[in-house]
Amino acid sequence: MSNNNPEPVIYVVDDELAIRDSLTLLIESTGYEVRSYDSAESFLSEYNTEQHGCLLLDVRMPCMSGHDLQNILTTRGICIPIIFVSGHADIPDSAKAFRAGAVDFMEKPFDSDILMARIDEALKKDIAFRDDFANRQHILERVKRLTAREKEVLDLIASSHSNKSTAQILHISSRTVDVHRASIMEKMQAENIAQLILMVLSYKQPNYGSKEDSIG
Questions:
Q1: pLDDT tens, position by position, for the chain (216 residues)?
Q2: Strands 53-58 and 33-37, how do they pair?
Q3: Nearest Cα to Cα of residue 35 among 4, 5, 56
Q4: How many Cα atoms within 13 Å fall on the side-chain side of residue 149?
Q5: C-alpha count within 13 angstroms, C-beta hemisphere, residue 216
Q6: Superfamily for 9-130?
Q7: Closest CA relative to residue 122, chosen from 72, 68, 84, 70
């Protein structure tokens, strides 16, 4: 585990008590902390987006299904890795889960060693997500230091406009664009235009629960 990441929590959401208990015992026996919930609603009411971990999620539950919960998390920009577990797995269910970004889809009963391997993979993905998110937050802080005009110029640079076309669109001189561009490069700590464009693209991605800031 990276020193920059807290100890993970494995969340188990399943309406069947026996399944929750067996998963909790299995996962805790490997040293992980487990928090279990009997419904998607109870998980949502307590989940802290800052907590490193992954989610074991039943597909078919009363009221809010596993797919419903996955959709809500996606809508909120929450990228916790999800491993679906189901006693009634079928192709449409698994396809729907994977299209929405699930890490895996396992049918009950499942091999405990395979499950733990999938959990380890999901936790690695979560660390990668969070490291990427932290990097995007640093980039956003740099964007906030730009002036309103510099943000306009950055928008156009990111859209592959040349200095000449940027000047024409903003009704300023090419020399002024050069000055703004130099200032943008310094404030964004970019070594070249390619890196600058990658920075812009990188923070326009889903994050852990807060809506993305725009350049403007």
A1: 344 557 899 999 999 999 999 999 999 999 999 999 999 999 999 999 989 999 999 988 888 888 899 889 988 888 899 998 887 656 556 555 556 456 778 887 888 999 999 999 999 999 988 888 888 888 989 999 999 999 999 999 888 899 999 999 999 999 999 999 999 999 999 999 999 988 888 766 555 444 344 444
A2: unpaired
A3: 56
A4: 12
A5: 3
A6: Response regulator (3.40.50.2300)
A7: 84
CB-based contacts of 91: which residues, under 8 Å, 6+ apart?
A: none
- 109 prior amide bond cis, ω within 30: yes
Cα separation, 56 vs 73, in Å, equals 14
Nearest in space to 200 (alpha carbons), one of 185, 182, 211, 178: 185
Q: Which CATH architecture has domain 144-202?
A: Orthogonal Bundle (1.10)
Residues in the chain: 216
Q: Where are the domains of the chain?
A: 9-130, 144-202
Residues near 182 by beta carbon (within 8 Å), at least 6 away in sequence = none
